[in-house]
Amino acid sequence: MQSRRPVVLITGGSRGIGAAVAQLAAARGHDVAITYRSEREAAEQVLAACRASGATAVACRGDVAVEADVVRLFDEAEAALGPVSHVVNNAGITGKSSRLEQASADTIRACIDINVLGAIWVAREAARRLSRGRGGPGGTIVNISSVAASLGSPNEYVWYAASKGAVDSLTTGLAKELAGEGIRVNAVSPGMTKTDIHERSTRDAGRLERLRPFIPLNRIGEPEEIAEAVLFLMSDAASYITGANIPVSGGR
Ligand code: NAP
User: Fold this and answer.
1) Which residues line ligand 1 at a C-beta cut-off of 6 Å?
2) Tens of pLDDT along 123-169?
3) Atom from ligand 1 closest to the CA of residue 113
4) CA–CA separation, 6 vs 4, rounded Å?
5) Which domains does the chain have, with CATH numbers?
6) Which of the chain's termini has less CB crowding within 10 Å, N or C?
7) How far is the CA of 183 from the centre of ligand 1 (A)?
């Protein structure tokens, strides 16, 4: 079935920031494909919320770190909804927080595989399918980076900060590479945002409250506040913006 609403594919759309982006995109007139790795039930809840806004919505299971999975995720999304014109490169992890000297190879490798290689596989597939030079519809790519890229995250996860530095370079370079193909590429860099990542990936449940006093706006961000920036960059209101990186971090 071909969709007449613009189609957005959001990696890691089952929870947290990705789920908020999916629901706001649905409310703003998009059809939505979310991807997830393991939490089918959470993905189903996001789909129900998107459908309640009138969107056609599908969930596709796959690991963004696996090149073949990424190709299949796009294939499944397009089979269900028609050509994708917006891609939100969101799936990411931190790994258990520690000083670098204490971090295991498995922790570091998983983070780099998902946040860097995964983001690159997704961006490459988006470029192949959206590019007007290749017969695609044009559109936007929004990469979810982090203010960690500039803060460096000492004593917490410098490897994660480094992975987001790579996402920033990907954004800068790809924006220039695809500017003539009808694709705008931008990034949003969240600060401390209320999601499961702190407890489940970083494994530091007290982190948000401990670091709150260091946030100039003196509160933790909501996933919906990140989603607003993403939807702005996807929209025609941002038609002259490419290669930008918007911090949504309460001033941190
Ligand atoms: P989250 O609540 O932990 O959700 C992560 C999402 O990514 C889930 O949908 C998860 O799927 C999916 N995912 C994880 N690994 C995957 C993989 N290998 N393949 C496919 N999907 C995978 O995280 P979040 O806080 O929303 O973070 C989203 C993005 O924002 C990340 O890139 C993160 O680095 C960035 N960010 C977050 C914060 C923050 O404070 N929360 C700050 C700065 C940047 P399942 O549900 O199936 O597990």
Assistant:
1) 11-18, 35-39, 42, 63-65, 90-93, 114, 144, 146, 190, 192-193, 195-197, 200-201
2) 999 999 999 999 999 999 999 999 999 999 999 999 999 999 999 99
3) 18
4) 6
5) 7-248 (3.40.50.720)
6) N
7) 24
